[in-house]
Design a protein that fits this description.
204 residues, 2 domains, three-stranded antiparallel sheet, alpha+beta, 9 strands, 6 helices
């Protein structure tokens, strides 16, 4: 007949059985060997009223009619189809146990150039006294004070800006020059030169 198979492209021999399929409304000739492939591609046999949907466990009402049916109200729909109509729920953010501001400031201080300077000074001058508190007038800044007998240093840590380096606020020679808040010795410098809050240091 001069026809070719729409699947494999082979010329169909005279007397060979030809299967007619509909692909998007267009009639296609398929040879005997390619019938299974046509069905897997979703092609519908010509004259068939509806495709078989045995894997769903119910009789379908036709592929085209199923596509035109309003979504979300299909009777007898499988659970997976019903789930697809549920409104999208945003993925919950992972719980993060963020440390309090002073602990964050201490961690950043110890990893900074200022923290490494205190380590070196501690080896030379011995262990100093230290305090950690809010910087006056700047709620997002934490003030770190480290004082030896004849010298003291103060640094600021901006907890609102992780990229801003630890910066020097001041230094002097007499502890009496410090205000009362800076002399609230609520932190310690360990033998390793690392700054710790007093409660944390007491546990170590």
């Amino acid at each position: 007949m001069g026809a070719t198979c729409a699947i494999c492209g082979r010329s169909i021999l005279a007397g060979e059985r030809v299967h007619e399929f509909s692909n998007g409304g267009e009639e296609q000739a398929v040879c005997e060997l390619c019938v299974a492939r046509a069905e897997r591609l979703g092609w519908r046999a010509a004259g068939a009223e509806e495709p078989e949907r045995q894997e769903r466990g119910h009789e379908g009402r036709g592929r085209l009619r199923g596509l035109l049916r309003p979504r979300g109200r299909r009777p007898g729909a499988a659970p997976v189809a019903a789930e697809s109509t549920k409104p999208h729920r945003p993925r919950p953010l992972p719980a993060v146990d963020a440390p309090p501001p002073f602990e964050r400031a201490v961690a950043r201080f110890n990893s900074s150039e200022a923290g490494r300077a205190v380590v070196g000074l501690t080896r030379t001058l011995g262990r100093p006294r230290a305090s950690v508190g809010a910087s006056a007038g700047t709620p997002d800044e934490v003030r770190v004070t480290v004082a030896w007998e004849l010298s003291w240093y103060q640094w600021g840590v901006d907890i609102a800006d992780e990229l801003r380096p630890v910066f020097e606020l001041g230094k002097g020679g007499q502890v009496d020059q410090l205000d009362a808040a800076a002399k609230q010795w609520n932190a310690i410098v360990g033998e390793d030169g690392k700054l710790r809050l007093a409660a944390e240091g007491a546990r170590r």
